[in-house]
Amino acid sequence: MEILVCVKRVPDTAENEIKINSDGTDIERDDLVYSVNEWDNYAVEEAIQIRDRVGGAVTVATIGDKDSEEILRREMAMGADKGILISDDAFEGSDGKGISKILAAEVKKGKYDLILTGAQADDGAGQIGGMLAAILDLPYASIVNKIETVDSKKIKVGREVEGGNQEMNEIEMPCVLSIQTGINEPRYVGIRGIRKVASIEIPVHKAKDLGVDAASVGAAGAKVKRVDYFVPPAGKGADIIEGSAEEKADKLIELLKAKGGIK
Amino acid sequence: MAQQIFAYILHKNGVADDSALELVAAAKKIDAGAKVTAIVTGTGAPLDALCKEMAASYSSVWKIDNAAVAYPNAEVIRKILVKLIPKGSILLCPHNTFGMDLAPGLSIKLDASFVSDVVAIEGIDGSNLKVIRQEFSGQVSTHILCDISNGAVVNTRPGSFKADESKSAGGAVTDKSSEAGDLSAKRRYLELVEAQVGDVDITKSDILVSVGRGIGEKDNIPVAEELAKAMGGDVSCSRPIVDAKWLDKSRQVGTSGKTVKPKVYMALGISGSFQHLGGLKGSPFIVAVNKNVKAPIFQVANVGVVEDMIEFMPVLTEKISESK
Ligand SMILES: Cc1cc2nc3c(=O)[nH]c(=O)nc-3n(C[C@H](O)[C@H](O)[C@H](O)COP(=O)(O)OP(=O)(O)OC[C@H]3O[C@@H](n4cnc5c(N)ncnc54)[C@H](O)[C@@H]3O)c2cc1C
Ligand SMILES: Nc1ncnc2c1ncn2[C@@H]1O[C@H](COP(=O)(O)O)[C@@H](O)[C@H]1O
Question: Cα–Cα distance between B119 and B112 in angstroms, integer?
Fold first, then answer.
């Protein structure tokens, strides 16, 4: 099976405090720790497991700048066979549709049975997988937390729905799936693994390589635009308990007792 | 405003999802005088009853009765909507597991703009719709301009718009079933597998000590269990803890986990994503313990403690035991 996984380099929000710059045009990016989008890591692991079961190859692709190469290498260290960096100044400022158009052009250059994305990335849109499928006119299933291979034409997938229930579907290939966390346990990648793939060449695909009309993507082609970043005026917000850890604990216990939080 | 506004009504066997009346409210934020059309798909008597119910809240209701959408398969429903919705319209959908499945691809097929997970709508600004979204797990908000000159699909965050209960639309139901067109799809719904029951039922707990990614490692779980024991409550968690298999899925709070309604909810090392908070009902007293003072959980909590949870939990446990 030929599998393409779309991956994105994102600020690691579990580690970083996201701050907005002085004019609200962007977040402060200087000291951020970046990593591969959590959901994409599960998608790559799933692709590797499928390949190991039925054969084929896993390609990881990302649209980003030179820095994005590091996440491709990381995913190759996990076991992906190939990496593709899709990079062009013309892609900057793309909206979801722009990103999807570029990825669709990349997909058309190959012959993939399965195209995986994460269920959502850092801006929480959860849109690329569904858009990509529609552009390519392929069937789509979102928030997939189980994949069973059936035969060379179709697979069975579980979609996670509300309440932790799972909706089972049969879907024809080629298809696009967006992958939910928890579908597997992504393997650990050590420094050694990354060193092993350090010298593998990663091709860079530009707009002209993909036959993408530069005016239809990037900021020029975007119909959905971010105007600014802001921190909403604090609502009532939590009463923050001050003091040493011991003092905080004492005050909290009083409150908990009053609210029935200690039996 | 020239554009027609539609809302897709999600339901289970004729029982409307909470989003059904939230979308009326969202539509009125786009255009206060909007005559909004609800699109309801399904089959049989439950569908008829729901259409009638929706006509109280929507000026117009389009009914599509077809066995192929007895279960809402987004791949089929997308085809229906592409067929029925006039070019240039605005369609509202809930940003839940169905809306995420349906809407992005629909916007492509309608050649319309798409804006996802909208938490507030500020209104029309020229040829744009101005909305608010959140990024980086709710740590920052953004204003978004969405060009609607060619129409738009807008997914709204569940719970962000207060349901419009006025029920004064006096709308009419139109049967559009015959216009649905070809409903073949390359994805077939098979069955629904229900979530498994775990050892404790956190939906019945009065006191929950809920841990998130901030707990750092599996070995710290017993520290939270000690705290829960001292308080007389149970341990629950956010999704990453279940993904890591440190706790059972039955302990997960959130839209894809359990809906809980404790008296006291102590969230430790949980950032406060909307999918997590979506599982919290009945206005509990919320205590947030987080080392990041900017964590969104502090916006919804009653009381906050800015501390490292690993150090704070044992202190709290010991003091509670002493105080008994
Ligand atoms: C379709 C879908 C459904 C989902 N359903 C759910 C759901 O049902 N339930 C759910 O929870 N999530 C769900 N999610 C995931 C959700 O989007 C978030 O990713 C998740 O809730 C984040 O969990 P968290 O708050 O534990 O982790 P993070 O967002 O990583 O937050 C960790 C927090 O811990 C703090 N912290 C770190 N170290 C410490 C320390 N030592 N002491 C104190 N604080 C510390 C950090 O400051 C941060 O605020 C869903 C996502 C999708 C796409
Ligand atoms: N710049 C990008 N390059 C490659 N894939 C991307 C990019 N942006 C988003 N994706 C994919 O789309 C998924 C969903 O992202 P989003 O729709 O932005 O929330 C991600 O998990 C990735 O798989």
Answer: 20
Separation in Å, CA B77 to CA A160, A238, B3, B10, B73: 18, 42, 22, 11, 6
What average pLDDT is seen over chain A? 95
| Number of A–B residue contacts, CB under 8 Å | 274
Task: For residue B1, give the amino acid letter.
Answer: M
Residues B249 and B103 in one domain: no
**pLDDT given at position B4:** 96
Confidence band (pLDDT; 50, 70, 90) for B197? confident
Q: How far apart are CA B215 and CA B135, in angstroms?
A: 23
Examine residue A129 and state whether it is found in any structural domain, yes or no: yes
Using a CB–CB cutoff of 8 Å, tell me whether B310 touches chain A.
no
- Ligand 1 atom with the shortest distance to the CA of A38: 19
| CATH code, domain with B126 | 3.40.50.620
Asked if A245 and B307 come within 8 Å (Cβ–Cβ), the reply is yes
A125 lines ligand 2 (CB under 6 A): yes
Per-residue model confidence as pLDDT tens digits over B211-258: 999 999 999 999 999 999 999 999 999 999 999 999 999 999 999 999
Interface of B with A in 18-47 (CB under 8 A): none
Residue B185 placed within a domain = no
Residue B37's domain spans which residues?
A: 5-179
Ramachandran angles phi, psi of A128, nearest 5°: -65, -45
CATH of the domain at A100: 3.40.50.620
- Pairing, β B11-12 against β B15-16: antiparallel
Domain count, chain B: 2
Q: Provide the shortest C-alpha distance from residue B304 to chain A (in Å).
A: 5
Number of structural domains (chain A) is: 1
**A179 within a domain of the structure (yes/no):** yes
Are residue B217 and residue B173 in the same domain, yes or no? Answer: no
| A208 CA to centre of ligand 1 in angstroms | 40
Residue in chain A nearest B308 by alpha carbon: A245
In this predicted structure, what is the pLDDT of residue B1?
61
Do the chains contact at B302 and A123, CB–CB below 8 Å? Answer: no
Closest-CA residue of A relative to B150 is: A223
B255 touches A: beta carbon within 8 Å: yes
**Could you report the predicted ipTM of this complex, rounded to two decimals?**
0.96
Mutation for B interface: A26, A100, A167, A251, most B CBs within 10 A: A167
Nearest to B142 among A97, A158, A228 (CB): A228
Domain of A194?
2-221
Question: Do B168 and B224 lie in a common domain?
Answer: no
> Would you say the pTM of this structure is higher than 0.90?
yes
Residue B294 has pLDDT above 70, yes or no: yes
**Residue A143 clears pLDDT 90, i.e. is over it:** yes
What is the CA angle B91-B96-B97, rounded to 5?
Answer: 110
Same domain, B44 and B125: yes
Q: Which residues contact A62 (CB under 8 A, 6 or more apart)?
A: A6, A7, A8, A9, A68, A71, A72, A84, A85, A86
CB contact under 8 A, A139 and B96: no
pLDDT at A15 over 80: no
pLDDT tens digit string along A169-194? 999 999 999 999 999 999 999 999 99
A182–B206: do the CB atoms touch at under 8 Å?
no
Residue A247 lies in a domain: no
Tell me the C-alpha distance between A228 and B17, whole Å: 33
Q: Are residues B235 and B102 in the same domain?
A: no
Residue carrying structure tokens 């858009």:
A131
Across the interface, whether the CB atoms of A170 and B97 are under 8 A apart is answered no
Judge contact between A239 and B302, C-beta under 8 A: yes
